[in-house]
Amino acid sequence: MVLRHSKEEGKAMRKVIVASVVALLLATATSQAAEVDVVDLKLDIDSMLGQDVTVEGNVTIMGDMASISDPLVPFDMSPVMLSIEELSRDDRKFLLTQCAPTCKVKVTGTIGMVLFQPGVIASKLETGN
Q1: CATH architecture of 32-126
Q2: How does pLDDT run across 20-50, given as a tens digit for each residue?
Q3: Contact between 45 and 118 (Cβ < 8 Å)
Q4: Measured between alpha carbons, how far apart are the two ends of the chain, in Å?
Q5: Closest to 41 (Cα-Cα) out of 86, 106, 85
Q6: Domain ranges of the chain
Q7: pTM score, two decimals?
Q8: What is the rounded radius of gyration, in angstroms, for the C-alpha atoms of the chain?
Q9: What is the rounded distance in angstroms from the CA atom of residue 116 to the CA atom of residue 38?
């Protein structure tokens, strides 16, 4: 399949690509992860791809999957998905043994695609212990 577009559409697409690359480079140039609460993360996650964030919330483990939800909402039905594959073995063990069914933790990671949707690719876990 060949997609055809006008010169104007091509220019617009190039501008979007350049802006995305610049945003990604700026996000990776700063070593400090932005602290964001769960509600703001839910609202802005689509525009945050590639950015490093730290978010505190209730983590729930479901087999090999995890999610983080608003700690102020007892039964938050719209959590943000977490990828925990890049966490250390000790952090993953903590989640498996101490977060059943849930626990409050601070997660640092990069916004990326998790289970076909924007989520947090976790790289660090702070338990408060």
Answers
A1: Beta Barrel (2.40)
A2: 554 555 555 545 889 999 999 999 999 999 9
A3: yes
A4: 55
A5: 106
A6: 1-30, 32-126
A7: 0.73
A8: 17
A9: 19
